[in-house]
Each structure stands twice: as structure tokens, then as C-alpha cells.
Amino acid sequence: MDNPEESYRSFERTVNAFGILNSEELDQFYALFKPISYTRKSVLTEAGSTEKYLYFVLEGVQRIVFQDDIGHEATFLFTYQGNFGGVLDSMLTGRKTKYTYETLTKSTLLRANIKEVRDLGKIYPAINQLLFEGLLFAFSGLLERLVEIQCYSADEKFRILLIRSPHILQLVPHKYLANYIGIDATNFSKLLNSVKL
């Protein structure tokens, strides 16, 4: 999305869905974000570092992933057009993260320094309210995800994912969807063929 006006409209649609910022606050908030592009499999935030940015996705797909010492991965979250992104726990606490935020496809994002966002929130309290509402939304999604992981079969997790994000099959490479669901990539095609869409 090379058109600055389209970038603004996408950002505006997402922010206005919360119904919190007036036009001046929206413009001041948007002014903090600068466009940045990444190639496929670029690391935006590395495990062991501190999240310094709040992202807004214009194009592409990213994921937040945990990797253990022997290379096992667990994908927790995908972000794509119209989503805010970043490693929230590190962003909020200022502590080093255990998670990696990376691109799965070529990606164009807007990026704002989290310190500048916080500073602007002191001038415009509605921005803090927007961030708080966004965090509540994210936390609610993480709780739902936790229930899915602990209570549902791979079939059920897959169906829930498709109900929540029906376009996900076209956006995310299937091996990452398999990891998200918690099955081996070789079994994903069997699952895909067995579930009636």
C-alpha cells in the first residue's frame, strides 16, 4: 500500500471502530506512525529484546511465536491488514520478551515508537483510552485462544479459526496454520480435506 491516503484510511477505519478519538486526536496519533517495509521472514521484534514499537499492518501477514531451546515453535497470533501489532507484554512492562514477532510474507506496516505514543497519551487522554480498549480486546482474544488450546480438538480449533477469520487460508501459509492449531504440517492437508467449509 504505497498510497499515503489509502494508508490513512485503513488506519482511520480500524481506530474509528472503537469510537473514541476525535479527528484531531486521530491525526495526532497517526502522525507518530512511519511506513516501513519488510521482506518475508523478517524479525520485527526478537525474543530477548524489548518491544519498542506499536505497529499497524497495511499489507502482509505476521505472527507472534515462541520457540523453545530445542527449536519447538508455538504460534500464538497472526496479524494482517487492519491490525495493530507488536509484542504486548514487553510493550506494556518494558521487560524483555520471550516471543518473536516476524513477517510471514512481504509486509508493509506503519510503526510508532511506544515511548512517543505514551507521551502523546499524556496530552490526549483519549489515546490512552483507545490503547486500553485495544488491550482489553486483545486480552479477550487471548483468553478465547487459551480455551481453544486446552479444550478443543484440532478439528474444532480449525473450524473456530475459519469462523473467526474465514480469509485466513488465503493469507497464511498452511504450515503456520498447522502450528497455530497444534498439529504436524503433514496432517494439515488431511484436516483441510476432512472439514466441510
- What string, H for helix and E for strand, traces the elements in order? HHEEEEEEHEEHHHHHH
Query: Helical residue percent?
Result: 40-55%
Q: What gross morphology would you assign? A: globular
- Oligomeric form: single chain
Low-confidence stretches: none
Largest sheet: 4 strands, antiparallel
Strand order of the largest sheet: 1-8-3-6
- Strand proportion, as a percent range, falls in 15-25%
* The CATH class of the domain at 4-125: Mainly Beta
Number-wise, the strands total 8
Examine the coordinates and then state which fold CATH places here, giving the name of the CATH topology of the domain at 4-125. Jelly Rolls
Second CATH tier, the architecture of the domain at 4-125: Sandwich
Query: Terminal Cα separation, in Å?
Result: 30 Å
CATH superfamily of the domain at 4-125: Jelly Rolls
Structural class computed from helices and strand pairing:
alpha+beta
Radius of gyration based on Cα positions: 17 Å
Give the number of helices.
9
Organism: Flectobacillus roseus
Domain Cyclic nucleotide-binding: 17-120
InterPro entries: cNMP-bd_dom, cNMP-bd_dom_sf, RmlC-like_jellyroll
Protein name: Crp/Fnr family transcriptional regulator
